Amino acid sequence: FQHSAPQRSTSQAVPDFAFAFDIDGVLVRSSDPIPRAREALLFLQRSRIPFILLTNGGGKHETERITELSSKLRVPLSARQLIQSHTPFAALAPQYHDRHVLVVGGDHGSCRSVAHAYGFQHVVTPADILGTTPHIWPSSAVFSAYYSSFAQPLRNDLQKHKRSLLQIGAIFVFADPRDWALDLHLILDLLLSHQGHLGTRSPRNGDASLPNRGYQQDGQPPLYFSNPDLWWAARYHLPRLGQGGFREALEGVWRAVTGGEKEGVELKKEVLGKPGQAMFEYAERALGEEREEVLKGEGDVPKLRKVYVIGDNPESDIRGGNMFESPVGTEWESVLVRTGVFDGGKEPAWKPKTIVKDVWEAVQWGLDRSG
Ligand code: G3P
Ligand code: MG
Known about the structure:
Pfam families: Hydrolase_6, Hydrolase_like. By secondary structure, the protein is α/β, with parallel strands linked by helices. 44% of the residues are buried. Helix content is 30%, strand content 15%. The chain has helices at residues 37-46, 62-73, 111-118, 126-132, 144-148, 180-191, 243-257, 260-263, 277-294, 314-323, 359-370, and strands spanning 17-21, 28-29, 32-33, 51-54, 82-83, 100-104, 122-124, 168-173, 223-225, 231-232, 240-241, 270-271, 306-311, 331-337, 354-356. The protein is built from 11 helices and 15 strands. The protein is elongated, with a radius of gyration of 22 Å. Strand 2 (28-29) and strand 3 form a beta hairpin. Bound molecules: SN-glycerol-3-phosphate and magnesium ion (MG). SN-glycerol-3-phosphate binds next to loops.
């Protein structure tokens, strides 16, 4: 393939199409760049064809993650181009400005600073709770050196031995939890609590005269997951469990705790990220801003007509691209690559427009299609 993209001559039309790239399994495997990913992005940059990165990953602020990606891929990228699973959480910060929120996921409680940057004022992490109340989950004592390196113990007035005054207004799973047991247990405690007061139990739990047998009917905090991914493509050659695996574990415990096979109830939660409509609407708006930037100085920017969403996971990237209903009538076409979760073995559960070897082929297919 040619390294240097043809420069768009002034006579060539300003592109009315763009690309949305998934990250894990399309551009990188953990921190290893995928072959030809750099060339694909450089080609688009040199051709001044806009693109964004649309990932169910997260755990760091967009500015930090894009700096890392730019260095790994050796391609200059901007935070404007990056939408992570938790990016849309920022819109929820105002409604919890005066509440404590539990933020779960990421390394070393990294999501605390992300939540603060998004505008959440009172952020608590599982490490803070464990640091303040070690006996809340004895099995995590073995990880105390790790936790004490970043925990911020709670203010004294927020905890009493028996009835905690710490009241959690919402639970956000920003990124894949590391210590599933501790995180799952604290979420379970809060969902069974009286109005989000850690260390309590609601008297309504199990009351068959109430909806949902009384569970989550007593002001317990809403539970937000940033993505549904059961699998994702890391460095290991087989897919790894993602945040969807953690949620399934929690849902299994929830069903057992709320009555088991016969009487167990459904867990009420919000699951955002791909393939959801909201995530793709967010992406489309970001693409609009990115096009303004990339196509600046080229006269009238034509309406965005087509977006090619390039992904490795049929359940999130392909399903999302196929189901998305653009509020402004843009057509989204999904392209599945074989460098990630989908290994080409059998028919994908969600049918893409085409299946290609890798992101370079995906870009060439899109360009051929857009003329
Ligand atoms: O945690 C990362 C995983 O959920 C998938 O990320 O970039 O393939 O959407 P991505
Ligand atoms: Mg992926």
